[in-house]
From TrEMBL:
InterPro entries, per database record: HtpX_protease, Peptidase_M48
Transmembrane segments: 21-45, 51-80, 211-231, 237-260
Name of the protein this chain belongs to: Peptidase M48 domain-containing protein
Cofactor binding summary note: Binds 1 zinc ion per subunit.
């Protein structure tokens, strides 16, 4: 029989899943950078030589130079990815970062709970929606804690403290940052952001753009086969770009499936860990359980959502109903997994924790 330590603050399983998910995200980003670098090598060679000279590795073997150049490039890509995902996630729920003199009671609660958790208070954003929920998006220096007006209007003071403490636990565990990074590629895969949409003129359908790009690709392929030389090199590059626009989503869907799976498992683990941390920091497991039950019952039937827009947000939220109001479900490929444990399971664990605390 194993002895449980109910008040332990370190969760080795959660740490392992955080590190595994982060490692996979970094590996996929490195792979994407490597593929793009290989395809653009003839045009990027002068730039690569300049970077290698600046780093003092120009005299080293080519493989070492490639790694020395790739590391800062991948780091920059991760930073941009994190910033972009944060901005798009806040935009998706129409959340606004509030000033210091707004929502003073809410800010006071966050400051007090952050102090108890030995954290710098995160930025605070409010979404003008009646759907009660919350989530935290991570950052390298500062996270953003997002709550909805519906959440503020639905919960009691003790329940609101419990939810805020839950979100702050995600910041302290650093899983908010990893989950924010992990939502980027799946969001691209599911159509939340589409390269094809980016090149489609306003008023033109996606189907028409696809046909036009296919015709251009066929013409360029014919010209490259007939003429060769410099045109062959240029058309090869253009063909790769067109292929990425036309079929990149399918390829990314296959590549990012492991990220979706690992992120789903991490999300389940982190919700249990954050529930536990909130119960311990507030000393009130019953309030955490009550908040889960109340918010779960607030949306008894999942609305028909545009999964391509809401999948990433739902995975980050306190409860998986997200922030979306009813909307028609969109067509298109989407990779989704169960990101949250059942509310009943979360409540059961909190009741068990409450019993353990009473025995102390």
């Amino acid at each position: 029989m194993t002895t449980r330590t109910p008040l332990a603050t370190r969760d080795s399983e959660l740490t392992r899943r955080i590190l595994t998910t982060l490692a996979l995200v970094v590996a996929l980003d490195a792979m994407l950078v490597a593929v793009v670098g290989f395809l653009l090598a003839p045009w990027l060679a002068p730039f690569g030589d300049a970077v290698a000279a600046a780093l003092g590795v120009a005299s080293l073997p080519s493989s070492v130079r490639a790694v020395a150049v790739a590391v800062p490039v991948v780091s920059l890509f991760l930073w941009l990815q994190l910033r972009y995902t944060r901005r798009q996630t806040l935009t998706a729920v129409d959340a606004r970062v509030v000033a210091d003199d707004e929502y003073t009671d809410l800010r006071g609660r966050v400051t007090r709970l952050s102090s108890q958790a030995d954290l710098t208070p995160p930025a605070l954003a409010v979404a003008e929606t009646s759907v009660p929920n919350s989530f935290t998006v991570g950052g390298l220096r500062e996270s953003v804690l997002v709550v909805s007006m519906g959440l503020l209007e639905t919960l009691s003071d003790e329940e609101l403290d419990a939810v805020l403490a839950h979100e702050l636990a995600h910041v302290k565990n650093h899983d908010a940052t990893v989950m924010t990074l992990a939502t980027f590629l799946p969001a691209v895969t599911s159509g939340q952001f589409s390269l094809l949409d980016a090149v489609t003129p306003r008023g033109v359908s996606r189907g028409a753009t696809t046909v036009a790009l296919g015709v251009v690709a066929a013409v360029l392929f014919g010209l490259s086969a007939a003429v060769g030389g410099a045109l062959d090199s240029l058309s090869g590059l253009v063909l790769v770009v067109l292929f990425s626009l036309l079929f990149g989503g399918i390829v990314l869907g296959v590549v990012t499936t492991p990220v979706v799976s690992l992120a789903g498992r991490l999300s389940r683990s982190r919700e249990f860990a954050a529930d536990r941390a909130a119960a311990l920091s507030t000393g009130n497991p019953a309030a955490v359980a009550a908040a889960i039950r109340r918010l779960d019952s607030a949306v008894p039937v999942a609305p028909n959502r545009d999964l391509r827009r809401s999948a990433g947000v739902r995975g980050l939220c306190f409860l998986p109903h997200g922030f979306e109001t009813d909307r028609d479900e969109a067509d298109g490929f989407s990779v989704t997994v169960e990101t949250h444990p059942a509310a009943t399971e979360r409540v059961a664990r909190l009741r068990e924790l409450a019993g353990e605390l009473e025995e102390q």
